Automatic annotation (TrEMBL):
Family to which the UniProt record says this protein belongs: Belongs to the transketolase family.
Listed cofactors: Mn(2+); Ca(2+); Mg(2+); thiamine diphosphate
Oligomer status and interactors: Homodimer.
Keywords: Calcium, Magnesium, Metal-binding, Thiamine pyrophosphate, Transferase
Keyword Isomerase: no
Region annotated Disordered, chain positions: 289-312
Record-linked Pfam families: Transket_pyr, Transketolase_C, Transketolase_N
Domain Transketolase-like pyrimidine-binding: from-to ranges: 317-479
Alphabetized InterPro entries for the sequence: THDP-binding, Transketo_C/PFOR_II, Transketolase-like, Transketolase-like_Pyr-bd, Transketolase_BS, Transketolase_C, Transketolase_N
Signal sequence interval, chain numbering: none
Protein name from the UniProt record: Transketolase
SMART domains from the UniProt entry: Transket_pyr
Amino acid sequence: MTMEAERTLPAEELTRLGELAAQLRVDSIRCSTRAGSGHPTSSLSAADLLAVLISRHLRYDWADPHGRANDHLIFSKGHASPLLYAVFKAAGVISDEELVETYRQFGSPLQGHPTPVLPWVDVATGSLGQGLPAGVGIALAGRYLDHLPFHVWALCGDSEMAEGSIWEALDKASHYGLHNLTAIVDVNRFGQRGPTELEWDLDTYRRRVEAFGCQALVIDGHDLAAIDEALGRARQATGPTVVLARTVKGKGVPEVENKPGWHGKPLEPELAERAVQALGGVRQIRVTAPRPEPAPPAPTVTGQPPELPRYDKGTKVATRNAYGDALRALGSRPDVVALDGEVSDSTRADKFGEAYPDRFFEMFISEQQMVAAAVGLQVRGYRPFASTFAAFLSRAYDFIRMAGVSRADIALSGSHAGVEIGADGPSQMGLEDLAAMRAVQGSTVLYPSDAVSCAALVAGMVDRKGVNYLRTTRGKYPVLYDNGDAFPVGGSKLLRGGDDDQVALIGAGVTVHNCLAAADQLAGEGINARVIDLYSVKPVDRQRLLDAVRGTGGRLVVVEDHHPEGGLGSAVLESLADLAEPVRVAHLAVRELPTSGTSTELMDQAGIGVSAIVAAARAALASSR
């Protein structure tokens, strides 16, 4: 049953809101028609919702978009960007000319889908099902870290309610009691190719929302008084709320209202002109939003750098243990937070959780929500570290990709990578992660070989921009480096080497240890092998590779516990692609489907064990004679 308004707004206020909604519709039509592309009908359906929200409920200082007390507005249905940008015009932060003349044009910040190149946009949206999950992270920060009364409003489309990530978000919002989060669902019945799964079945939407522990408010999304009543109730709720608004796609333009085939299509100029006139013409209404209460400044990060864990050289330590130790050490900074996907006793993120439970967020087996929450937390200035098995981050890959589009500053840790994990078998072996993470715009990809380098790299990620990925190993391996050694991003380490090297063995992570053992065996045969720990997979140490080419006559053996596509070998070959000097690269990688077994058995079977490295080095020498 649709909720009726319990109080009626004054007639003059209803008129004002109706005029603003008409302006939002007109401007959505004008900018998309001028651009020749866009989603005006998806914007028209939600115009009434936004008119009421920005006029009466969104507490926001438009002159200070990064103000700590501001509410947050997220367009999870990012394709409705004409409406969002029309809101920005109504708020007075962009001009009418900028909206109409530059929308979707080359070089304009008013892109086809919103991105944080605009200061009033928190996260990039447009890949459906992501805005609300990011809102969960922002709301987590507000309730548990900032302790501020701001509210998070996420406008969702009914099509994206078919995405599992939306329900992960509602589940975690309920679990954490996020009374400061409201999803506004624009139930306009039509998706891209036709009717949505549930069309206007508001009762089923309601029952699903309530089953996930959230309060559902069902309204007519074109009844201004009912919208106002629902948003007021949402702000006062004791848990997360979902406003289910029954709307009409294309509302306000009878020629396209509730008609299929108009998704993502601008109105032709003649139709647009008729629609604008029917809606009352162009307006220049300015909205004065409710101002938030002043908030205290964010605490500054002061004091000495964290004291990183120390390890004795030669002691066997798993890099996943070093990750947990280093993360706990970083917890001395109040801006560091951690998330995990219910495997923290394996990733070792539990060490942070035990020391700083107020800054540890368990996302359970919801990897999409885990990454989205990390993106939301960094919106509020926190430095999130999110961890799970490397293989399971693939479930959240679109969220990681969009984090790159958002220019989000997050750190991810993938443990239990490669065939090295042993008996668990191929379903648990992250063998694609380096390629996937290297492909993310602006990412950093790190793969330490021992505990000292791992701890140093974890510390290096905390203030690094963009999406940062650290790959850790399950098994224990000897500490190779001295405490205090430097591991700059983009660097590498030379573990063996001299002027008379005949071949270079290049590894990262576990294969560094195999390369060292192979170098020892080759030395017994009178072959001098250089060993390089290429711990920074992206950016890669090109100078070290050039030195290896020139110092060994171009004989390189690259060894990785990863599929051959896109990982360490690809990083090396791409770095040397423009080199005019001859290079012969033997690339050892996991090329067949692994099975269960011991780490040694599986690495030998994959052709990345010690004997395979020795054979590849011999072959490289033989081919050059």
